[in-house]
Design brief:
Blueprint (H helix, E strand, L loop, with lengths): L6 E3 L10 E4 L7 E5 L2 E5 L4 E5 L5 E4 L10 E7 L4 E6 L4 E5 L5 E4 L1 H4 L9 E7 L2 E6 L3 E5 L4 E6 L12 E5 L2 E5 L5 E5 L12 E4 L3 E7 L2 E6 L4 E4 L6 E3 L9 E4 L4 E4 L3 E5 L5 E6 L10 E7 L2 E6 L4 E5 L7 E2 L12 E4 L3 E5 L17 E5 L3 E5 L10 E7 L2 E9 L3 E6 L2 E6 L21 E6 L5 E5 L6 E4 L5 E4 L13 E6 L5 E5 L4 E4 L9 E3 L13 E6 L5 E5 L2 E5 L4 H4 L9 E4 L2 E4 L6 E6 L5 E5 L4 E4 L6 E5 L11 E6 L5 E6 L2 E6 L13 E3 L11 E4 L6 E6 L4 E6 L4 E4 L12 E8 L6 E8 L2
Antiparallel strand pairs: 1-10, 2-58, 3-4, 4-5, 5-6, 7-8, 8-9, 9-10, 11-12, 12-13, 13-14, 15-16, 16-17, 17-18, 19-20, 20-21, 21-22, 23-24, 24-25, 25-26, 27-28, 28-29, 29-30, 31-32, 32-33, 33-34, 35-36, 36-37, 37-38, 39-40, 40-41, 41-42, 43-44, 44-45, 45-46, 47-48, 48-49, 50-51, 52-53, 53-54, ...
């Protein structure tokens, strides 16, 4: 049966987009392939290759146009100079190596079969046709026309059966199946769409099939490799594998068989030339997923450690060649400072239960040294490390929340202290089940005095502070909680007055200031007169540059007009933002599950959601400046875990379960003075199509731009440290070529600065 191919170019956002960066993990290798002197490896949702001639390492990910779905197979065709990537959902990507174009092929996705059986397992090229093995059968794909051909449903009792792999041998196409043994048909048979034309040559369950040097090799799911010279009679080959093989393939001169613990490389005489056991690789507990040979080197894909390569002959060292990246793509939380980005990988379930324990360590990124992974072994083996808080007064000092293991203190990337119930005194941290160390530190934040506040989950005295003096103090919150033993705390932020705003899973928003009214906590909940939240499930709060409190819940957005109201009002009523859509008032972010809110230097709000991507709103929320999704941007998924901003560079980071990306924002934090004001680009050349940025401003600075004769062409009050000018006179017409004066005055009018910019039309 023939069906037309639906091929589309990946959205233009992906091509050379300099505003985005990708920070993907290449540690979980799904498949490998090779071409001449180049090796290719597919990670979870990204691809990399390495030239053995020049050692050039090239990555391809969502920034370049790849989708974010989970990769299941990869193949490079030397003859057509195309790389094919198969996905678990049936999507197929074709990369043309000549011009770099990426084709998005959705025919299998559109096929009228159950969605859970569309996974692509293997590519097998023969005379310009690729036979694509899937969980429902086999599909032809023509590398010349870039169109699909026939689909083969080859099962007897059930037509749609899982085919892990195919190969061509002695004029037959052989298919390994999980339920109906080895099946074959003549490759020239014009009626292969008829399952009756496929005969069973061996019963059982098979995970792989490969032809090599006049022999046919099949891998059973019980661990035995079998061999045939005539295609019908099989004998055992090599040892019985336990665990069983996960990959079998051949190159020009070798047959390679991979199990999770061992790689076997056989030469043309079927003699074992190289055996690598996972135990041979020092310092890691490697689990193999696949392997291939390029030239004189063996390349091994692993489950958690990327690609390892070693010499095919003799005893050689092991080299890790994967691109520098985070330990894993699934990132739960991030914390950005001016120099570094810290990431935490542990992601607890919705109910906050720390079991099963997650031993995932933490990561750190620096523009100078790249990514660094700090494993659990360097952190006292403590699991469930969920959030990291950088000391704003000392970027080399960070605190790590362990949900079940206390509070970790690191200095210069080294663990120096673990705080728990046993060493913080009677007024310090509390264990859920003493004497066991089950100290659940959930959220933490520094106040302006350098004190570190944190929530200690499931205890009465749930709010703790580690003072800059080195002492501890506890505060009760059980009087404002429905059940402290059932409360899960979300984000914690501290305002200029020292009020702690604490989001909770089911108790609304808590506000506490120990210096006000004898430390009585207040709550903002759901009903009118009690806070007007859309739900009591509050995920996050953010304080903007005008001291408004933006509240993100699982059912929408609310705003408290001023954090100062905590000090004066008993009723902390919030309000929705109403926008007009077609002369009809609508509530901004109505019914959206909001996962994070971050305020940038221009007082714009970056809002992350559970399933709708990222929004950038104007300071008052009335204008949507950006809306990024996995469809129109390199976001790997619409489910956003965390957002943070490097206030020095303006880079906005988006953490997701499918990878980390960043967007080069234009708004940076306001400066303390005007000594570092910069204007760029300067000069503005005819081919430049962007805006002129003026950075290093103080908040509320007055910026006036005039021509050389003093005629005013633009004026604005800064919101944060950056403004942009579109080189138009008050947005009406483009100004002419010439030198333009930029007059800057601080909010008080005392400090001033003058700059120039040249515009060339």
């Amino acid at each position: 049966m023939l069906f037309l191919s639906v091929i589309s170019l990946q959205n233009g956002f992906a091509q050379n987009n300099q505003l985005w960066k990708g920070y993907f993990s290449y540690n979980e290798i799904r498949d490998v392939t090779q071409s001449g002197n180049r090796f290719y490896a597919a990670g979870e949702n990204a691809l990399f290759s390495k030239s053995l001639t020049t050692n050039e390492l090239k990555t391809t990910n969502t920034i370049d146009g790849l989708p974010s779905q989970q990769i299941s197979a990869v193949y490079h065709s030397t003859a057509s100079q195309k790389t094919l990537i198969g996905y678990e959902n049936g999507l197929m990507i074709v990369i043309n190596e000549i011009d770099g174009k990426i084709l998005n092929v959705i025919d299998i996705i559109n096929k009228q079969i159950p969605p859970n059986i569309k996974k692509i397992n293997h590519f097998n090229e023969y005379e310009g046709i690729v036979y694509v093995s899937c969980d429902f059968g086999i599909v032809q794909y023509n590398l010349t026309t870039l169109q699909f051909g026939d689909t083969y449903f080859i099962g007897n009792s059930i037509a749609e059966i899982i085919v892990p792999q195919t190969t061509i041998f002695n004029g037959y196409i052989y298919a390994a199946t999980l339920t109906e043994g080895l099946r074959r048909a003549e490759i020239t048979n014009p009626n292969l769409i008829d399952a009756k034309e496929w005969t069973q040559v061996n019963s059982g369950s098979f995970s792989g099939i490969e032809s090599f040097n006049g022999n046919l090799f099949a891998a059973t799911t019980s661990g035995q490799i079998t061999r045939s010279t005539n295609g019908t009679t099989f004998t055992n080959f090599g040892p019985l594998l336990s665990p069983t093989s996960v990959d079998i393939r051949s190159t020009e001169n070798h047959l390679i068989i991979t199990s999770p613990t061992t790689v076997f490389a056989y030469n043309n005489q079927f003699t074992l030339q190289k055996r690598i056991d996972a135990s041979q690789i020092p310092d890691i507990a490697a689990e193999f997923t696949c392997a291939t040979i390029v030239g004189s080197k063996l390349f091994i894909g692993t489950k958690q450690n990327g690609v390892i390569t070693t010499a095919l002959d003799g005893i050689g060292d092991f080299e890790f060649i994967s691109p520098n990246g985070p330990y894993r793509n699934d990132i739960f939380s991030i914390d950005a400072s001016s120099s570094n980005l810290w990431v935490a990988y542990a992601n607890l379930p919705e109910n906050g239960d720390p079991n099963p324990l997650q031993y995932l360590g933490i990561g750190k990124y620096s523009t100078t040294t790249g990514w660094k992974y700090i494993p659990p072994s360097k952190l006292n083996g403590i699991p469930n490390l969920t959030r990291i808080t950088v000391n704003p007064a000392n970027e080399n000092q960070v605190y790590v929340n362990a949900n079940g293991g206390g509070l970790l203190k690191l200095e210069n990337d080294e663990l120096v202290m673990v705080y728990d119930h046993a060493n913080t005194g009677n007024n310090g941290l509390e264990s859920l089940s003493p004497p066991n160390t089950d100290v659940r530190i959930e959220q933490s934040a520094f106040d302006k005095s350098g004190n570190l506040w944190m929530t200690n989950g499931l205890v009465k005295n749930a709010l703790k502070v580690f003072k800059s003096s080195g002492t501890w103090q506890s505060f009760k919150l059980d009087n404002v909680l429905n059940d402290y033993f059932d409360t899960r705390f979300r984000r914690l932020v501290i305002d200029k007055n020292g009020t702690k705003w604490i989001s909770t899973r089911s108790d609304g928003l808590l506000a506490f200031n120990e210096a006000h009214n004898n430390g009585v906590a207040k709550t903002i909940t759901q009903n009118d007169g009690q806070g007007n939240l859309p739900t009591t499930s509050v995920e996050v709060t953010a304080i903007d540059n005008r001291n408004q409190l933006w509240i993100g819940t699982r059912a929408g957005l609310r705003v408290l007009s001023s954090v100062d109201r905590f000090l004066s009002d008993n009723n902390l009523e919030t309000y929705p933002i109403i926008i007009e859509e077609g002369n009809i008032g609508e509530e901004l972010m109505n019914d959206q599950w909001i996962t994070d809110i971050v305020v940038d230097g221009s007082n714009n709000k970056w809002v992350g959601t559970l399933n709708a991507g990222v929004f950038l709103f104007s300071p008052n929320g009335q204008e949507t400046l950006q809306h990024f999704t996995s469809t129109n941007s390199p976001l790997p998924t619409n489910a956003i875990s965390d957002i943070d901003i490097n206030n020095t560079t303006g880079e906005v980071f988006f953490a997701t379960a499918s990878g980390l990306v960043s967007y080069k924002g234009n708004s940076i934090k306001a400066s303390g003075d005007l000594s570092e004001v910069k204007v760029y680009p300067n000069p503005v050349r005819p081919e430049f199509a962007g805006t002129v940025k003026i950075t290093g401003l103080t908040d509320r600075a007055n910026v006036k731009i005039t021509d050389i004769e003093g005629n005013l062409v633009y004026e604005v009050i800064s919101e944060g440290g950056t403004i942009e000018w579109d080189t138009r006179a008050f947005g009406k017409y483009r100004v002419a070529s010439g030198v333009y004066m930029i007059f800057i005055a601080g909010e008080d009018g005392i400090e001033t600065k003058v700059k120039k910019v040249m515009i060339i039309r």
